[in-house]
Amino acid sequence: MAPKELEELRTQLNELGEKGFITPSMSPWGAPVLFVKKKDGSLRLCIDYRQLNKMTIRNKYPLPRIDDLFDQLRGAKFFSKIDLRSGYHQLRIREEDRYKTAFSTRYGHYQFTVMPFGLTNAPAIFMDLMHRVLKPYLDRFVIVFIDDILIYSKTREDHKQHLRETLQTLREHRLFAKFSKCEFWLAEVKFLGHVVGAAGIAVDPSKIQTITDWPTPSSVSEIRSFLGLAGYYRRFVKDFSKIASPMTRLTQKDVAYEWTEKCEAAFAQLKRSLTTAPVLVLPEAGLGFLVYTDACYTGLGCVLMQGSGVVAYASRQLKVHEKNYPTHDLELAAVVFALKTWRYLLYGEKFTLFTDHKSLTYLFTQKELNMRQRRWLEYLKDYDFSLEYHPGKANVVADALSRRPSRDTEVVTCHMMHEYGLLEAATIVCQTEVPIETQVMICAQMRLQTVSTQRVSEGQRNDQSYSRFSELVRSAECTDWAETTDQCLRYRGRLWIPEVPELRDEILQESHRSRFTVHPGRTKMYHDMRRHFWWPGMKADVSRFIRNCGICQQVKAEHRRPGGLLLYRFLFPDGNGKTSLWILSRITEDREET
Question: What predicted TM-score, i.e. pTM, was given to this entire model?
Answer without folding.
Answer: 0.54
